[in-house]
Amino acid sequence: MDLKGFLIVLSGPSGTGKNTLIDRVVPHIPNLQYSISATTRKPRPGETDGVDYFFISDEKFDQMIADGEFLEWAEFVGNRYGTPRFFVDERISQGQTVIMDVDIQGALQIKKMMDEAVLVFLLPPTWEELRKRLNKRGKDSNEIITQRLEHSFEELKYIVDYDYFIINDQLDKAVERLITIIKAESCRVVRADLHSIQRLWQRR
User: Fold this and answer.
1) DSSP 3-state assignment of 1?
2) Are 11 and 161 in contact (CB under 8 A)?
3) pTM above the 0.70 mark?
4) Do residues 70 and 82 touch, judged by C-beta distance below 8 A?
5) Is 192 exposed, middle or buried (0-12, 13-18, 19+ CB in 10 A)?
6) What structural domains does the chain harbor?
7) Which of its termini does the chain have fewer beta carbons within 10 Å around, N or C?
């Protein structure tokens, strides 16, 4: 039976393990495609256009914004990143499920553009555990980590705009929960080709 594709958007506070979770889930779901973003930054050694990112000029990025071609976009450290709608729409039309991770604001932008998108909020088991994870990464000063934690607490209020939540207390369990959500969403009647169902139940 042919099933319609859909978009899964995973977001949550920095340090909750979004990328790790997606990397673990992708091999377990047939036709699950990681979304490819567009960016104005230059490719790093080993990166391939159309595989790691769509590397585009500032002028092209401006034009795509003007034409409404991004589901969401943001600026980070002097470069811009965005989710091209054409990529997501093309994969969904082919029956694939597209998964991506973005920040809270990006997820809410996407929900306005694609009401059918499925939003999943990833949480740490406790804020103290989140602090430990941020410290363990060794990327930020104590001041920056405190700012991130305060920002994460503010982000929590947006969980009411999401469809599901996952507490990432144990990675294996979090992987199982996300797989369950994706499989359940794929079985929604709105994803099915009703003509295919009717053909299956034709009287002989």
Assistant:
1) coil
2) no
3) yes
4) yes
5) middle
6) 7-35+96-200 (3.40.50.300)
7) C
